[in-house]
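debug: dumping io for the single-chain case to check the tokenizer round-trip. Nothing else runs in this session.
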Amino acid sequence: MAFDIDMIKEVYARMAERVDKAREVVGKPLTLSEKILYNHLWDGMPTKAFRRGKDYVDFAPDRIACQDATAQMALLQFMQAGKKKVAVPTTVHCDHLIQAKQGAAKDLQRANETSNEVFDFLGSVSNKYGIGFWKPGAGIIHQVVLENYAFPGGMMIGTDSHTVNAGGLGMVAIGVGGADAVDVMAGMAWELKFPKLIGVKLTGELSGWTASKDVILKVAGILTVKGGTGAIVEYFGPGAKNLSCTGKGTICNMGAEIGATTSTFGYDDSMERFLRATDRSDIADEANKVREHLTGDAEVYENPEQYFDQVIEINLSELRPHLNGPFTPDLATPVGQLGEKAKKNDWPIKVDWGLIGSCTNSSYEDLTRAASIAQQAIDKKLKPKSDFGINPGSEQIRFTAERDGLLQVFENLGATIFTNACGPCIGQWDRSDAQGDRKNTIVHSFNRNFSKRADGNPNTHAFVGSPEMVAAIAISGRLDFDPMNDTLLNEEGEQVKLDMPKGIELPPKGFDVEDNGYVAPPEDGSNVEVKVAEDSERLELLTPFEPIKDSEMQGMKLLIKAFGKCTTDHISMAGPWLRFRGHLDNISNNCLIGAVNAYNKKTNFVKNQLDGEYGGVPDTQREYKKAGIKTIVVGDHNYGEGSSREHAAMEPRHLGVAAVLVKSFARIHETNLKKQGMLGLTFANEADYDLIQEDDTFNFIDIADFAPEKPLTIEIVHADGSKDTIKANHTYNDAQIAWYREGSALNMIKKQNA
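debug: decoded output
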């Protein structure tokens, strides 16, 4: 029986009428993405055609999902909204705060001891406000959502950038900051710029060593980390129907790495099989009644160039396995070509670790394909040259995989089975074998491979591949190994070749689990008390931000001019800092410590204009705050790429940064800045980035006239007294300018609910 089946029935009941009306107002056949978007308009029945990439639109998502690291700040904000219960079905999943070190049992026990304060807080807030709670060890949020909550044709938002994983089950699922989630929890509309549409036509069929993961690795190489910004990627074609549901989830998951708003697939037989296998036949039965509306119109897929803003075509029969990296998920290289590339770039050929799992590739099918390679190593007497780590996606997956002997195969190879949690994928890995300045290489089936991402070590070169390819390369111990053509020397001195992987889409005996880790909230949580200790280092009740006065936008100082890639990992690191995600002041001590200073190419080392001394970014910013001086951060392209973590906006806001001026933004981060009452601006002329000097002072000349579609004028005063005047563009509409004037979107919510 599905969760929230009545809500799902309501979505389907209105779909035919709204889709027909949308088709009428748009005046042409519709893509799947458009059908879902128009069916979830806040105002109900469609009355106008929205301009892609231009019009801001209010939507009514069906549900919300939050992971523990971001849920803390989201729920701390929701507690200020003055509501007794969340307005839409909402869940919290404890998956980020469990460090991988010794193995599942010991790691989970340690997490429950060290983070019990946070887990207790999240559990109590969930009980008080009617939120479903998934305990530590229950699984990774996106796999749990796919198995329990995702449904074809639905719309959900989640406080994690990989919420998009649910597109594998035909949803429009979008990663957001906590403030966006709070809007919807509080019963308000959720605003999004109507996305552009990228169509990816898949033909042929996967075979051999090529996996679903290779589809998105190929797409990432084509579109780069910013090529999908502001767009929904919709996959279609005969090749799409040949993919499993969890394989589709993998592809949608890594859509976050190309900056896409989300990715999705039309409802098909593989989704129906998955729904029935996960005890949701009731959803499949309802979806079948509106099946024609749960995919794009036939005319769209017959002539995609007429209906999408961009079309990419990939023949799965010709697609080769890829490894992407290091340091960026869009550096795509077909397997077998990495040897020469690695030598040219001085990347270590020896592979230290192979890591399988994460929200991207931890399904039953993923584990069977990787286990088939692991079993071959045992049968062919091959001793792995690399260490193995496995993160099952959920307790249901783990329990079923253990029952069917899959985990034992990995353990027979010496693998460590970690907790059903994110672990190394988000820097929660206590790795002891790669310290100091030694360059090293790891391969994993995760989604991101930014510098320091997995283990905090800038010398770790991480490459992304499918689970079966990770298994093969880890067994060989070499980055340049090509299992399709190369042989390996076994323990008896024989040259042996690995056979193609074999996968099982769904468990033949069905899924099974004893305790899936779910805790339902009580019907009435009004008597539940949420406690936050005044002396807590982990949790801190929020104080509303004060509006930034126009007078404070004069005489501003430069905090840092970031050079090159500046992701949310650079702005607000994860790893050990996750423990402070519920304490804004404490976590602000990691603010921009990973950003590279353009003037000295160092991290966490900037000039304090008050005394001319150099120091850490947070320390310097706190000095400016004491002096009552607002500051500005300057950045390059795709600033804020990566996670949805709103801490990357809240920390600078808390410390006194008033504006972020960059060449271009990643979507979620730009929205997060707006929500927190800051200015997120882009250079009207990108070359003006080069005008910014280390000792500059900034005056926002016309901030009093801040208005939609009107660039702001900034006077830059250099240390020698000379001046430059530049224009800065923005995408603020009237409502977002109101957030800025009130100090934050949350302040506006409280004002409206007063």
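debug: round-trip ok. Residues 508 and 647 are 43 Å apart (CA to CA).
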